[in-house]
Amino acid sequence: IWHPDFLETMMPQLDNKSTSYFPVGFMSQEESVKDVSFDQRTIKFMSNEEATGISIFPVHQLLEINGFDEFYHGWGSEDTDVHLRLRNAGYEVRFRENEIYFKHQWHEKAYRSLNQGSIFHTQLEKINHQRTEIVKKHKLVQSNLHHSFGLMPVEQDYGRLETTEELISVNFEKNNVIATLASLPIMGLNKVIEIRFIKEEVSWTDKIKNYLKPKQYFLDAAAVNDMILLEIVNRYRNLPYFYSYSKESISLKIMLCE
Q1: Which residues of 173-208 are buried (b: 16+ CB within 10 A; e: fewer)?
Q2: Residue 255 in contact with residue 165, Cβ under 8 Å?
Q3: Residue 190: left if φ>0, alpha if ψ -120 to 50, beta else—which one?
Q4: Residue 82 burial (10 A CB sphere; 0-12, 13-18, 19+)
Q5: Can you tell me the mean pLDDT for 193-211?
């Protein structure tokens, strides 16, 4: 929730040389639903300088570093990453710690769990954090060097996803999943391919192999989900695709464009 005077107060203070970011006051669930003014809303705690989600950037600086790194998916780190790269480029990033202009409403975190069928990579938050650590360690400045960034989706391409031109069924066997994902680029351009990863009953022989071998033959749905989503993030994030998840079946519908 924005302070009603934020824009009027802050705009005259902004310049075209530095990024400003702001603390956020977090409210309880009960406080979030009250119909009261900004000043009457009490907060439980304040964010510190590590929380970078409320930021105002000079646009030319963002363009110089190739914008936000579009590797980041899921929750967190993309805003921290862009702050790091701006500082690595020599620009000032200012934390306005004494100015409370934003209050955060309570909300559920179902988007950070697979329990309700949300599209969620179980390890991606940790991977995101390690990505920022690499940016920090190597003082990186530009992102998206091997992918175009800021692309707008083409509505016509996404409309084609309403049909399926080739359907492929794959079980949760680890090597099948790896081989299928690796084979996507040779399955044909400008064709809508739907891959259904389906949980099948595993024989006692394969269950014993899974138990005895350090590398599983058959994966659970969460592991298959993580493999698919990481492949999308790394290779196909700019392509039109549709993804759905359940513990019994996972579907990826995608069109490989030229």
Answers
A1: bbebbeebbeebeeeeeeebbbbbbebeeeeeeeee
A2: no
A3: left
A4: buried
A5: 79
Task: Give the CA distances from residue 116 to residues 122, 161, 219, 246, 247, in Å, rounded to whole numbers and listed in that order.
Answer: 13, 24, 20, 9, 10
CB-neighbour burial class of residue 126 (10 A; exposed 0-12, middle 13-18, buried 19+):
exposed
User: Which residues lie across from 20 on neighbouring strands?
Assistant: 56, 94
pLDDT of residue 257: 80
Distance separating alpha carbons of residues 180 and 198, to the nearest angstrom: 13
What confidence score (pLDDT) does residue 213 get?
66
74: left (phi over 0), alpha (psi -120 to 50) or beta: left
Q: 222: Cβ–Cβ under 8 A, 6 or more apart, which residues?
A: 114, 122
**Domains with residue ranges and CATH for the chain:** 6-138 (no CATH), 155-255 (3.30.110)
| pLDDT value for 124 | 87
SS3 call for 150: coil
The two structure tokens encoding residue 178: 């790896």
* pLDDT value for 223: 93
Average pLDDT over residues 158-162: 93
| Residue from 152, 149, 169, 153 nearest 161 by CA | 153
Q: What is the pTM of this model?
A: 0.85
